[in-house]
Design goal:
Residues about 1-10 have low confidence and may be disordered. The protein is α/β, with parallel strands linked by helices. The protein contains 14 helices and 12 strands. A 7-stranded parallel beta sheet has the order 8-7-6-9-10-11-12, sandwiched between helices. A 5-stranded parallel beta sheet has the order 2-1-3-4-5. It folds into 2 domains: about 10-120 and about 320-355, 3-Layer(aba) Sandwich (Rossmann fold); about 120-305, 3-Layer(aba) Sandwich (Rossmann fold). It starts with 9 loop residues before the first helix and ends in a 6-residue tail after the last helix.
Length: about 350
């Protein structure tokens, strides 16, 4: 078996024609039948068993060319599993996130990872973010409960006016991560006359200008914002990006929204910040451990929090067909020795090209 940097022979590469659908997102199986008609051997996890367990029981891992599917459960797709598939060319995901995969190992082996940034997914997250912010600032839940408990029009039910007006400067929305979701959130709030600032060290100034957003450093964003919404990816750099020190900088009336990944926020620090009233409230769709453990300290602050079951992207009607086509196109390009669209790890391209470019399995 090849090591993490091992190269395969042309003969071995041509033998690898198996596609493993570890989570068969195409419930019609139409795309898998299409691939089979083109000469692929498609292995489908029809019983919906644990995807990692499914991969471990593949009989001939050396014949696997590509994985297709969604999210891997903890501990994710690790190096130990990846190394069992010597001739793996790519992993094509129907979803956007990829923190569930050992990306360093993939790249070191010249394995390309692609995702499917469908608007139904990232646009759905942005819309849900707006709903979370409005629910907290307008005290939607509290006002409903007040009526059911015969508490009529008390002052503690006053909502927050968002936009600027002649006698009021309005709130400041701080966006951490100005990718597709962050830009859509900014777009949705712009008509409200909300001041919008953002932090994203990986984007050019032109992106901020096009989004109508003022660029600031993370520290300044934490200090200035009334609402902070997280939309960056989880990486080694962003894990526990918001820590005890971060919450000390935030306004005591500020609210935090996290629809990105749970580990971007130190939940111990967040619980402490809520306990000490360093921030006012929080809305979370993601957690460090999912589902949220019964003994999580966050549960004691449920009256100041909105908890979602990691499904802000789940809306109807879903444009699932878009991601199915993206994955199918990716598989076909990979099989032909061509670079696909939506590559997550460009650092793998050079080695991938050395091993597979123009080497079609057909």
């Amino acid at each position: 078996m090849a090591g993490c940097n091992g190269l395969l022979s042309m003969k071995q590469a041509q033998l690898a024609k198996t596609i493993v659908a570890y989570t068969p997102t195409d419930k019609s199986f139409g795309s898998y039948k299409k691939l089979e008609s083109l000469g692929f051997n498609v292995v489908i996890n029809k019983e919906s068993i644990d995807p990692l367990a499914f991969l471990k029981q593949i009989n001939k891992p050396e014949e696997v060319m590509c994985f297709v599917g969604n999210t891997f459960p903890p501990p994710g797709l690790t190096k130990e599993i990846i190394e069992n598939f010597d001739n793996l060319r790519s992993i094509a995901k129907y979803t956007i996130g990829y923190d569930d995969i050992d990306l360093d190992c993939l790249s070191s082996r010249g394995v390309i990872l692609t995702n499917s940034p469908t608007e139904s997914s990232w646009g759905g997250v942005a819309e849900s973010t707006v709903a979370m912010i409005l629910a907290l600032l307008k005290k939607v839940r509290e006002r409903h409960l007040a009526v059911t408990q015969n508490n009529w029009r008390s002052e503690d039910l006053l909502g927050t006016y968002l936009g600027s007006r002649e006698d009021y400067e309005g709130i400041t929305l701080g966006i951490i991560g100005l990718g597709r979701i962050g830009q859509r959130v900014a777009e949705l709030f712009r008509p409200w006359k909300v001041k919008i600032i953002a932090c994203d060290p990986y984007l050019a100034d032109e992106v901020f200008l096009a989004a109508g957003v003022r660029r600031v450093a993370l520290k300044d964003l934490l200090v200035q914002s009334d609402v902070i919404s997280i939309h960056c990816t989880l990486t080694k750099e962003t894990e526990h990006l918001l820590s005890h020190e971060s919450f000390q900088l935030m306004k005591s009336h500020s609210i935090l929204i996290n629809t990105a990944r749970g580990k971007i926020v130190d939940e111990e620090a967040l619980s402490d910040a809520l306990e000490k009233n360093c921030i006012a409230s929080v809305a979370l769709d993601v957690f460090e451990i999912e589902p949220l453990p019964r003994n999580s300290k966050l549960r004691k602050f449920s009256d100041r929090a909105l908890f979602f079951p990691h499904m802000t992207a789940a809306n109807t009607p879903s444009a699932l067909s878009a991601s199915i086509q993206m994955v199918t196109d990716s598989v076909l390009k990979i099989a032909k020795g061509e670079l696909p669209d939506h590559i997550v790890n460009p650092e793998a391209i050079k080695l991938w090209q050395y091993k597979y470019q123009n080497q079609s399995i057909f």
